[in-house]
């Protein structure tokens, strides 16, 4: 999870590995890691590999490449399992040299991979492929359960173990767990971003009966509407009520943009959940900028490769309270899961007030 960050620094990242005499081995792995990071973090100017020995580029060459691209902040990600001598001595010495050479560039070093339940889970799955079926129950104790509550509770118990250490608030943690549950991907929380207090504000809005507006019917269908109605929240999808023809090839705007524009002042103080259309999010940002209408919070999770990451970057650069997922990831199920997580938090606070 991320919270507020500097919006003006031009950042690049270096994935730093020891290197190997078998160049086709480690280099291909590090290149794939760089490609994944670059695809999911388009705000980075560059994502470069670098190696301590045997392979190229080395740290100095990778830093020079990042600086040439215009980076004034370089984040170094050690692809090491634990903090050995390279992490504690060699890399800091290299960084000191780079700081002297590039005094205007900020260098940051993250932790090594270390222990992570995700790695344990990966090993567990590999083990499960080779064990006899009769022994799988020891790895997957809930595999034969058919009761939905038991299945969900078992999932949430496992997700609790997989959550990385973080300073989540209770509401933020509820969102993180629901997103993992909805996506089946524990790594989704690495791209989850909250503006300060956004999760808590959403809970309060829902408790006070705020409108919930979605960009598509799939988000609408995934929201716990009965629970929302208990708080007096109206759940609507302007696109579902749009009267314009479905074929808008002659129109410069998409149907999602038109629907969002038609919503107008209904957006004021509403919980807006966007899980499909980047154009809907871009249209909403235009409305805020041009008309001064401000939603209570925007759950901005459009998915895709065209304008999805860019629209979310613009949301995160605005002053609108938001919950979002960096990069191309997102989807209707995740937007709905976020709303549901916070509806359940609202219900919990009402039933069990402190």
UniProtKB/TrEMBL annotation:
The keyword Metal-binding applies. Pathway: Cofactor biosynthesis; adenosylcobalamin biosynthesis. GO terms for molecular function: lyase activity; metal ion binding; precorrin-8X methylmutase activity. The keyword Cell membrane does not apply. Residues 150-343 form the Cobalamin biosynthesis precorrin-8X methylmutase CobH/CbiC domain. GO terms for biological process: cobalamin biosynthetic process. CDD domains: CbiX_SirB_N. Keywords: Cobalamin biosynthesis, Isomerase, Lyase, Metal-binding. InterPro entries: CbiX-like, Cbl_synth_CobH/CbiC, CobH/CbiC_sf. SUPFAM superfamilies: Chelatase, Precorrin-8X methylmutase CbiC/CobH. Belongs to the CobH/CbiC family. This is Cobalamin biosynthesis precorrin-8X methylmutase CobH/CbiC domain-containing protein. It comes from bioreactor metagenome.
